[in-house]
Amino acid sequence: MQEKIIILDFGSQTTQLIGRRIRELDIYCEIIPYHKFPADGDPSIKGVILSGSPFSVYDEAAFKIDLSRLSNYPVLGICYGAQFIAYSNGGKVEPAATREYGRAHLNFDRENPLLVGVRENTQVWMSHGDTITFIPDTYETIASTDHIAIAAYQKKNEPVWGVQFHPEVFHTEDGMQILRNFAVGICGCRQDWSAASFVETTVAQLREQLGNDKVVLGLSGGVDSSVAATLLHRAIGTNLTCIFVDHGMLRKNEYHNVLADYECLGLNVVGVDASEKFFSELAGVSDPEQKRKIIGKGFIDVFDEEAHKIENVKWLAQGTIYPDCIESLSITGTVIKSHHNVGGLPKKMNLKLCEPLRLLFKDEVRRVGRELGMPEHLITRHPFPGPGLAVRILGDVTPEKVRILQDADEIFIRGLREAELYNQVWQAGVILLPVQSVGVMGDERTYERAVALRAVTSTDAMTADWAHLPYEFLGRISNEIINNVKGVNRVTYDISSKPPATIEWE
Prior knowledge:
This protein has helices at residues 15-24, 80-88, 175-186, 195-210, 223-236, 254-263, 275-282, 288-307, 322-328, 362-371, 376-379, 399-418, 471-484; strands at 4-9, 29-33, 45-50, 75-78, 92-105, 107-108, 123-134, 139-144, 152-155, 160-163, 214-219, 240-246, 269-273, 313-317, 352-354, 427-441, 444-457, 465-466, 488-493. By secondary structure, it is of the alpha/beta class. The strands form 4 sheets. The protein has an 8-stranded mixed sheet. A 5-stranded parallel sheet has the order 13-12-11-14-15, sandwiched between helices. Helix 1 (15-24) links the parallel strand 1 and strand 2. Residues 332-340 have low confidence and may be disordered.
């Protein structure tokens, strides 16, 4: 039985970061909506973390749970989670005089088990508009800052803690020590979750789940679907058929390159050139969500057609990972962007869904790929959107626009590799802008398209910073694109971080 930490999601932007940090301790954890805690308990649960939230605890719409359901487990509340625990037990939470955001330094009880090993006056990161101003006699303050009297507390003689800062973020210097103290020291987790254990457990689960059923999987050429395919191949062998669809908006020469790559993995791959179908259905469509939905439906249509050529197919497998699920629908119900590989299947397909990587972050997927012995060039590939270049072309999609973008993108990606910058960047690509600009080439005036280079650094795609690429490199790439890509006379560089921007423009 795999022991785990449960993280109850109250809607914070950093909930997934808490999960990543726990995973980095080689401890398995699951993030579940705040109101989905198992009714009958679960003997594999070693502890519970309550996340932050966009709400105040006294808001009518605030997310609330019956804390008595957690009474059998050690509990750590973070930000809203800490305020909710205190408030629910007779404490007082009030709006702060000024929003407490940014760095602070902690004064604390060094003997408390949550703070053992934390350095004196350590830096923590605050981000909240409310503050705990009173805790009942059954609680005790274990940390404060110059501006916050109750920065952390413990319920006396019980394994319940709350911190008003964010131990999961980079700016909290000893945040990992605090999370380790909770998960290992207090909850007693063994730190035995690894890529190897994931492969062993998942292969066994897949064999039990799928039996002798036949499965089709949609390959994209990216890391996620490739690892999912290799994992499934290890579990069920020739009962897996992979379908690689060329929707016409892949990177330059990618269709043929990817098919060649998969030969070395021993996968049964069917290549389908459906580019004419997708270009026809996308003609005149400019809305980003509509483009994604058309491409998503197109994939389903192609899968359905190909699946009917294989006898007795019962499952469709996908390389869905955690960020796909998270971005598709937040706990507040707000759609950020849809993913064609999230959210179920049309009834007409009559197939069940298999997503073996659904609970993994991207870097964990890569570790699993290495454990499976996959080639490094497949594992280190940058993420690439399922709809491909369609969502990097702002506005309607045409074959000519795709040609321009493919040529520019090929120069940028090849340049990153040649300059040994590719592996320093999480994701990179070129965006074709819906504007034209005046230029001069030779003695002639031009009026051609502008493109934007996009490169970011990240660990999980939940947050990202723009990559500080050398000016000399950017200048060289700009010149090469303008000189070699017919139809482009201007190159810009996107220096937006996520949030507030997303990594992709659409």
